[in-house]
Amino acid sequence: MAISRDQVLHVAKLARLDLRDEEVERLTEELGAILDAVSKVAELDLADVPPTSHPLDLVNAWADDEPNASLPLDDVFANAPAREGDLFRVPPTA
Amino acid sequence: MTALVDTIRLTAEDAIGLVERGEISAAELHGAYLEAIGERDGELHAFLRTVAEPEGTSIPIALKDVISTKGVETTAGSRILAGYTPVFDATVAARCKAAGLSLLGKTNTDEFAMGSSTENSAYGPSRNPWDPTRVPGGSGGGTASAVSAGLAPWGLGSDTGGSIKQPSALCGNVGLRPTYGTVSRFGVVAFASSLDQVGPVAKTVRDTALLYRIISGRDAADSTTVELPSPVELPENDRLDGVRIGVPRQAVALEAIEAGVRAEFERSLELASELGADVGECDLPLSFDYGLPCYYLIAPAEASSNLARYDGVRYGPRSDGATYREMVERTRDDGFGPEPKRRIMLGTYALSAGYYDAYYGQAQKVRTLIGREHAAAFERFDVLATPTSPTVAFPIGEKAADPLAMYACDLLTIPSCLAGLPGLNVPCGLSQGLPVGLQLIGPQFAENALFRVGYALEQALGLDLVPERLR
Fold first, then answer.
1. What domains can be seen in chain B, in order of their start residue?
2. What ipTM was assigned to the predicted interfaces of this complex?
3. Number of domains making up chain A
4. Residue B312: closest CA among chain A residues belongs to which residue?
């Protein structure tokens, strides 16, 4: 099963990746081959099988509702590319 | 200056003894490892950075660069985290510190732990101490290379589909991927959250058990963790009387397994029988037929979600863009290397409208069957055994251009990861002068059984695991 160039561009948009032209070309080919290989799971009839999302039988791991100290703001912003006061500075959203 | 101790054969247990008896100070031991790193890491590139002074009173430890270390840069082998300096320690790093261990350095990894050779690291590959023209395995090739070359007494890795077990096999170390949920992931860079586990890498089974004892147990900061049902035991029995070892027919039938690997694997099974174990065959047909495709849907799907956080807003480098959206898209394209991009794209596709049920949903059902198959095998056996890697260490560059060939490196390690089971790599011989690893798989929480079998075989095999060229 191949994946088209348009599908690759659509998925890149969903994934927030501004792929370069040569990447689009390479990924169209590579993803086609990988999808062919992983599509093998479709061979099995699994209508009656429940899915596993988590390998341990854990149910409702509750934490006590107690306030804890948060990180100091200077720590929170220590790795930020751009800070303005107590906010992360970003380019305009539109 | 001549180092006070030769680190090449020093086990963690012996190193702890030296420090406790006052024969060497923590600072002197730290210095001896830094000296070994200075001598040999120019060639091996196991470390991305080292720490000059020890903080603790006991021995040093190397941590894979996906583990957050307060004040010490943590990149996950990616450019998108270049310069990122955590403001807190991962729980496993904090537990090591609480045990007196000092951070020696951060070890190289495939970018975001995605790979089987460390060739996907944005900072260049690590090399195998047995033959530097070959890979050390991956993703945790840095830790494996370091422990094998005497650059660290032990280290921590992370394993999603084989990233602890496979490099341990290729470098001749012991490595444990623990039962899912027994070791905290708080502060560990996330790849695929239903699979990721942190675990120890060391020169001996006892060292591995000792380090597992230090890092395991429930952590309030990671709601997927549980308390161990029984304490970690350091193995000391060199017999295997009454232990039932199952060998999955479908695993050993795989054509991908090299003749030399097969021969060493079979020899270790004969040895297990001589030590008193009952060795028999079992069946895991779906696990080895569908495990790899199942994994390469689930892991990329979860990765695409986890890696959405790298947006150039809160940390990491930022690329220019006229709008917020352009900035994010450019930052991500510039920051991620080819393998994370492949997996983000594959995972996003598998989760997208119209494809979710056919891919991710179907893979989650296959995962259920793989778990059931293993559970059935453990009704008859205490431990299962396969080779860890189908091949010995391969030449750098051999698989780098072929993603599917690289993915197949983990053919034998993946099924038990999907089932959340613990797996231990134990070196079991040499082929072409390179290490071969035995993979022991247990039921959930059966680490003590794995340590027992691994220890008895290790003692009986008596291999010299110092790379020949470094003896």
1. 7-285+370-470 (3.90.1300.10)
2. 0.96
3. 1
4. A81
